[in-house]
Design goal:
Helix content: under 10%
Distance between the termini: 27 Å
Number of helices: 2
Strand content: over 45%
CATH class: Mainly Beta
Largest sheet: 16 strands, antiparallel, barrel
Radius of gyration: 22 Å
Shape: globular
Number of domains: 1
Length: 408
């Protein structure tokens, strides 16, 4: 009931603003969101609507799609989905104190999540303090996930089914950035609440990091009292691109309760590397990331719970046509391709020495049209090959997806 009241309140606020505010006082803060500055900047690299000199600005994005998928001859038929509606509220509390929140409504109002809600204190370009609900900067997609920035309907499998996409926690940290001619250096480091035992005790019956997102208590208390450390460093050259390296790790199990030792401290460690670049001659945009997951799984669990996982994706986006189209100036038609792979259980069976499978490979060709830099209409064809843990012939999924995503 509370989530519906919240939605109604937001709709009422929007209606009131539209009905009572002199439109001449509204100022849109535009952003070319089709190409990010650095992934660190993604949280603020969004268009906002501001009223006069008030310190509060509003924004958001929406995305919806249609899909027809078939797996080994079986289909659920034609499906229409309202994937998400996300609202941004930002405020310049003082000249160097900023607040930004991101609230996401997924699948209608099936899920409502606070993905980001923090206050930034800017002391120096190289030293800033951030506290509240922060986005853990593991890889690039977790920070830079807004739908209008991507040419693909689905989010990457490695980011949603291996890493917990849009993963955020309560905590504090520091970040900074330094420019020098064509070069930029950035870093982030946060201590937050972390994972829990659901990453191995879940309905997927495998090591599955996204299961932690089902626990809303992580915004209220730590599962085991041990902080999660997330850190990232990135370097960008205006002519070459951006390279980022990140780490996220901490104890995930409840090893002690009421002074009694229950188990040893079992750690989760994630390493990721990401890269994006634009080829000058062809203006081809390349964006990808790869991550490695290491989990200390108890000996009482079977081998279907992987101790090592790895996976990632790479996107190629090629502008085909840029001109005035259908009344939109500077519209762009793109051809795109995504290649992605995830291995949820990297290793061999102890009894036979044969390889443990449980992996998926996917190829997604796409055509997208951007009437503006902040709106994308996209058509995808998805083809997946997924093997079970025993390496049986893969299940094959294929189908078409069509949809849009836009900032507002």
């Amino acid at each position: 009931m509370k989530k519906y009241l919240l939605l109604l309140l937001l709709l009422e606020l929007t209606w009131t603003l539209n009905a009572q505010i002199d439109p001449t006082l509204l100022r849109r803060v535009p952003k070319d969101t089709s190409r990010p500055q650095m992934n660190l900047d993604a949280v603020y690299n969004r268009p906002f609507l501001q009223l006069g000199k008030l310190p509060v600005a509003l924004g958001g994005y929406a995305e919806a799609n249609y899909q027809y998928l078939q797996e080994d001859g079986v289909t659920d038929g034609h499906q229409f989905q309202m994937r998400r509606l996300t609202l941004f509220v930002s405020s310049s509390i003082a000249s160097r104190i900023k607040f930004l929140s991101e609230i996401e409504f997924e699948d209608g109002t099936k899920e409502i999540n606070i993905e980001f809600a923090s206050v930034d204190f800017e002391f120096n370009p190289l030293l800033n303090l951030r506290g509240g609900v922060v986005m853990n900067p593991i890889g690039a997609f977790n920070q830079n996930h807004d739908g209008p920035k991507w040419e693909f309907v689905d989010r990457p499998i490695s980011a949603t089914q291996m890493l917990p996409a849009t993963f955020s926690n309560v905590g504090f940290g520091i970040y900074g950035k330094k420019f020098s001619k064509d070069w930029a250096f950035a870093y982030e480091a946060y201590l937050t609440n972390g994972f829990d035992e659901s990453i191995i005790a879940n309905t997927e019956n495998k090591t599955f990091l996204p299961a932690v997102k089902e626990n809303p208590d992580r915004f209220e208390e730590s599962f085991n009292g041990s902080p999660l450390l997330t850190g990232k460093i990135a370097v960008r050259n205006n002519k070459i691109g951006e390279l980022g390296m990140s780490y996220m790790g901490g104890v995930y199990n409840k090893y002690k309760e009421d002074g009694l030792t229950l188990d040893k401290k079992r750690r989760l460690n994630v390493f990721a590397i990401d890269f994006n670049s634009t080829v000058p001659e062809s203006n081809t945009y390349i964006n990808g990331e790869w991550a490695w997951v290491h989990v200390d799984v108890p000996d009482t669990y079977t081998e279907q719970f992987g101790e090592k996982q790895q996976g990632g994706f790479v996107d190629f986006v090629q502008p085909v046509l840029k001109r005035s189209m259908l009344g939109f100036e500077d519209a762009v038609l793109n051809a795109a391709l995504r290649l992605e792979y995830v291995d949820w259980n990297k290793g061999k069976f102890q009894s036979t020495g044969s390889n443990i499978s449980d992996d998926v490979f996917s190829i997604v060709p796409a055509i997208s049209w951007r009437p503006t830099a902040q709106t994308v209409i996209r058509f995808n064809y998805r083809y997946n090959w997924q093997k079970d843990i025993l390496g049986n012939p893969p299940a094959k999924l294929a189908g078409f997806q069509f949809g849009f995503s836009t900032y507002f």
